[in-house]
Each structure stands twice: as structure tokens, then as C-alpha cells.
Amino acid sequence: MAVERTGVYPGTFDPITSGHMEVIRRSLRLVDKLVIGPAINIGKGPLFSLEERIEIIKEDIADFPQADRDRIEVVPFEGLLIHFARQVNAGVIIRGLRAVSDFEYEIQMANMNARMEPNVETIFLMASDRHQFISSSLVKDIARLGGDTSQFVSKKVFQRLKKKFSANCPPVRLR
User: Fold this and answer.
1) 1 has a pLDDT exceeding 60
2) Distance CA 168, CA 163 (A)
3) Which of 32, 39, 10, 42 is nearest to 23 (CA)?
4) Is 131 annotated as catalytic?
5) Which of 33, 69, 98, 164 is catalytic?
């Protein structure tokens, strides 16, 4: 009997973008089970609450084929990623890279994790050229300033962003 290969894909996912979704789809080719781990990271001051981020992730993967959905679990975590990987029995940590600037930070993290847990590998997936420039921070900035984010996120996320920012920023009335 083959051993199930579990991978963990951690992130803040505030909000989840088309780039994140690409990494999720590609990760499913590499692992038998994928644990998506939205981080409980108060330090980043997320726009969406943890509950909202979990809900958004689940909504976005709802369009995946059932066989793929059955292999995905969404489990929030706090603390060290390597502890979370051990907790969910992951042998692989999956990280998406957009640019060389991401690589410098990510390689340091991967090396630290390897020192703490040599049996957990880190795999880097390069974003495709379609998604290389997309970041959650930029998506939020565009939405906050009234721009169109529909090409960077799913329709469901786009609607949530519109609702979040229209609720927080009532229209300005000029005399």
C-alpha cells in the first residue's frame, strides 16, 4: 500500500488570488492530500477575518472537480509553520514564488525549516507569467482605491472586496 503524500500550502490568503489558486491546482499534481493553511497572523492586520478567509478559500475551491476537493483540507494555523506541517503529517511544504525578491526570503525560511525538521521538504512553484505580478496586498490596494480587481481574483472574491470597501468607504459627495 502506498503512503499518502501530504503537502501543506500556507499563507495569509487575504484575499486568495488567481495566483494562489494556480499554486493549489498545480500542487494537487504533486501530493495526494493538500492542506491549505490560512495563517492566524494578526501582525499583518488582515482585511478579512480568519473565518472570512477560510470561507473564501472554500468558496473558491468549490468549483474544483469533486475528486480534487476531496483531497483538500483547509486548516488554519498559528505559530511555526514547521510545527503545523508536523501536526498535519505533511512531508512537503509548498510555496509559491512570484519573483526573485520572493526567493531570498523563502530560501531562508526553507533552510530554517529543514534544520528544524529534515524530513519535511519545501517545494517552490514559480507563478506563471499570467500571475507573477499578483499579490494580495496589491489587490487590496487596487480595491481600496476603487479599481477593478476582477482579473486578479475569482468573481466571489471580487464581490467580497467590493462589499468590504463600499461598506468602509461611503461615497464622497461634492457640493
Assistant:
1) no
2) 9
3) 10
4) no
5) 98
The answer to whether residue 18 is domain-embedded is yes
Per-residue pLDDT, 42? 64
Query: Do the Cβ atoms of 7 and 27 come closer than 8 Å?
Result: yes
Given this model, what pLDDT does residue 44 score? 65
In a domain, 112, yes or no: yes
Active site residue 98: yes
Which structural domain range is residue 128 located in?
Answer: 6-132
Q: Of these residues, 18, 27, 136, 154, which one is catalytic?
A: 136
Catalytic site includes residue 49: no
Number of domains observed in the structure of the chain? 1
Q: Is 8 helix (H, G, I), strand (E, B) or coil?
A: strand
Per-residue pLDDT reduced to its tens digit, 51-78: 999 999 999 999 999 999 999 999 999 9
136 is catalytic: yes
172: in domain: no
